[in-house]
Amino acid sequence: MPSETMEYRAALADLLIIIKGRCIEAADTIAHMDVRGLRPAAVRSLWPAIQIETFGIGGHHPGYGINGNRVAYRPSAAAISRAEEVLYTWMPAYVERDDCRVLLGRWSASQAMRGRVHSFRAYCRENGLSRSTADRRVDDALKAIAAAILKNDQSLQGPNWSRVVPMMPNSTIPADKKAPVTSWMAPDGRPGHYGGDEEAA
């Protein structure tokens, strides 16, 4: 049935965006967890105190940057739970090959920590991997996760989009390649600004 196939593909495509966002968010969360300076005398939990998810620009505290105030990003408990789900449930259960799990982790880290870790291209070069092969393996890992979640009809939480969107890979379509959206128009409809035949008068 073509309609089921198209519906499945559309659901998978939508899910892939969320899965990419969640993988990038997991890498970002791990990078920002406060684990430095722990000593036996100052043991504390890795989980932060109750914290409401922020919706400021880049996931920062709403007062970030006002009057020189620089509140560092610290992941919320919900972000840590989502990262744990990605790292300890999805990747081991749904991505079969170890090398694909490693590549997915490195890709996520390169997106989340630009400037702090090597780019994914540099990682591929250092390890003798073709970039296209590595990208294909990352895509296969993401599709495997999405297909398993879709098959199991799992409930899915989205990432903190205000934090993740600036880190997402550029997937825009050049303006000259975009088709005009006219599906809402009647077959014989004309745009309101059409200046053609002036039949009135």
Would you kindly provide a written description of the structure presented here, covering whatever features stand out?
By secondary structure, this protein is an all-alpha fold. The protein has one domain. 48% of the residues lie in helices and 0% in strands. It has six helices and no strands. It is globular, with a radius of gyration of 22 Å. 25% of the residues are buried. Mean pLDDT is 76; it is low at 38-43.
Strand proportion:
under 5%
Q: Globular, elongated, flat, extended or rod-shaped: what is the shape? A: globular
Please estimate the helix content.
40-55%
Uncertain residue ranges: 38-43
Would you kindly provide a brief summary of this structure?
The protein has about 200 residues and is mainly α. Helices cover about 50% and strands about 0% of the residues. It has one domain.
